[in-house]
Design goal:
Helix content is 76%, strand content 0%. It is built from 14 helices and no strands. Helix 5 runs parallel beside helix 8, helix 7 runs antiparallel to helix 13 and helix 8 packs across helix 10. The chain is globular. The two termini are 29 Å apart.
Amino acid sequence: MEKKNTVGHTAALITILIWGTTFISTKILLNDFTPIEILFYRFVIGFVVLLMIYPHRLKVTNKKHEFIFASAGLCGVTLYYLLENIALTFTMASNVGVISSVVPFFTAILTYLFLKEEPLRINFFIGFLVAITGIYLISFSGTSKFQLNPLGDLLAVIATLVWATYSVLTRKISGYGYHTIQTTRRVFFYGILFMMPTLFLFDFEWELKRFTNPVSLFNILFLGLGASALCFITWNYAVKLLGTIKSSIYIYAVPVITVLTSMIVLDEQITYMSAFGIVLTLSGLFISEKKPSLKKAEKNTSLTKFN
């Protein structure tokens, strides 16, 4: 059991370390690509790579499972990223960053309502408040101030609910007994399928000459191979081993990784407020992860038996 937890935490940490740096690649690619083009190409690359690594066909044993795969592809690939990208056109990136950090809260609520396998503990909510305070300080440590932009902020909130739903669906899929690479590939397939109609609504161009630029090629491969193919596998694996609530808590660390990466790669300066925000965010993560003491656990067990 302890070994499984260690592997699960390692998988979640690897995922967050990569996802926290993807903004740099996306920022560079936005010079030559639109958001929908980046989204489409990265998941097509991810799908092809997973097919090459594990070409075995997934034999679905239940029609209901296929519906869950399709729902996961719609939520985790198409809707989440589209809603987030559209939200960024109506509101500030800092707003979206803070709102996106509410994902663990929504995930915990949905998990409790629909799966009823992970109890909601008081330390989770305390950790959430501490982490969200830290993330706020990180996002608004400069001159920017939190300004409400109803449409954009609402879309960002919906995006967090969609990702929380994806996490719950992933947890259900993990119980079906299929290979993780096969299930991830099937989710990608449906995500790309649902994405196709949107290509005609946005400025999508089949101009592959842009990939002759080594910088663009490197960054799109990083997003396709690392942030999509690898990270979706490690994330799904983490959810399988740790559950939706514990794995989602790692999302708190994304803005921390983003700030630290900005310092190293983009030579951005870190403020005292950002540094304090990082400390609070990481503290919130550890508080949320903290297990109840043995005495409290025994007390709760005895009360349960008494009742």
